[in-house]
Amino acid sequence: MWYNSLKIRLLFLFFASQLKAQIYLSEYHQMLADSMGKPFFWLGDTDWELFHRLNREEAAEFIQLRSEQGFNVLMIATLAEEQGIRSPNRYGDFPLNNEDPTQFLITPGANPENTYEYDYWDHVDYIIDLAAKHQMYIGLLPIWGDKVARLWGKGPVIFNVKNARQYGVLLAKRYENRKNILWILGGDRLPVYDGIYDGEKQKGNDIALWRAMAEGIESVLGADAFITYHPAGGKVRTSDFFHEEPWLDMNAFQSGHGARESDPWNWVSADLSKNPKKPTLDLEPCYEDHPVNPWDGKWTRAGRGYFDAYDVRARIYRTVFAGACGVSYGHHQVWQFLNADLYPPINVGDTIIGWETAAKSPAAYEMAFLKKLMLSRPYFSRKVDQSIIASPIDSSYQELIVAFRNEASSFAMIYLPQNKEVKIDFSKITGKLKYIWWYDPRTGSATSEKPRKGNKIETFIPPPSGKDWVLVIDDAFKGYAAPGKF
Asked: N vs C: which end of the chain shows fewer Cβ within 10 Å?
């Protein structure tokens, strides 16, 4: 009897300990796991203005679609970038009283049919709960960073160290019973800056402020609250400023939209070389249909053009193969929920698509194929290994091939950004017989080749259709399913 009672108590304590955390660092501290210890591949979507610009019906339509497309994290700013404090949401509601982050504008009740009852925060609640019904997380940005450091944004700057902590406490208390929230501080901002921004000299160090906000969240939720930081674009990484902060659970960076020739796979390697070990990922790679560097007034369609689905794949696959624990996809007309009848378009070049059409763009579907591929093989011990590639390695953005394997070397995956032959060192993969697969990142289909024996250098030629491919080589004895299958 005492044994059963003790067992029940231990089970209660175990599950109670899980309540305030949703995803965890894996054994190697470079990948993520869910509360059951299963691999969690972060497949995020940048939906910064969702709370601010969509009504209930639109939010339901969008979340249903993103669920069907395989996304598991929706990243949304609570105080949005585009005048999120001084312009109301779709129901005419504002988030704060007198622009004071310690005073939420809240009315009694939450009936959406009653315009007085249904306030800004009720709408945020509705969207968070809707995502939970679809087993999706909200990557919750407490603020967009222009409310801390205006730099190139609209602001207003309303935060300081004291009220940042208070605001973190208030948000955490409101949402401590919602278990599908992952916290993302920052909001496209450098924590330390000194230069000319938006035509004026600006200098600041906001590390203490962001630390205070994190401490406010953890004062309510405990140290298990999952917190990361979304920095500004470029080669700035959270590991440059926050790596040893105890509240930072995952490093991140933003490879951004300024150029095709970016090398975020090298940033991943740099992050993973640091101690203590923490996972890392690109929280904002190039958006599909974003004009390439539209900010200097020199953009043209015929010149720089737009990032397309291939650009998205070529950046994301190599970043993930280099060791990132997932990725956040984005579409330029989705993050702003572009509806030209309601809001002026932002940096769209010469093309208006509209968010409802943009949400069904090719790469939005293709990202699920990457997630399925990664989860179809042993996951936690994967590591980049360029020695698998026996061909000369071209380090240019257009040509760089990236390969990885698991610790046991029972399989390898090689991403080819160009449809060209590649030589592979079979001695790097175990087994006398190897199964060979070509995985199509556009369709998620896998085509097998005739198995090959031995441990010598082998030459492979991709299928004729398609610009980029993934070559998967398995130790035949392991009996793995086709890539992308379980």
From this structure: N
Residue ranges covered by each domain of the chain = 16-375, 383-478
CATH homologous superfamily for the domain 16-375: Glycosidases (3.20.20.80)
Examine domains 16-375 and 383-478 and report if their fold is the same.
no
Global model pTM greater than 0.85: yes
Q: Which CATH architecture has domain 383-478?
A: Sandwich (2.60)
Is 192's pLDDT higher than 50? yes
Q: What is the pLDDT of residues 57-91, one digit of tens each?
A: 999 999 999 999 999 999 999 999 999 999 999 99
Q: What is the model's pLDDT at position 21?
A: 52
Q: How many residues does the chain have?
A: 486
What's the pLDDT score for residue 22?
78
**pLDDT of 378-411, one tens digit each?**
999 999 999 999 999 999 999 999 999 999 999 9
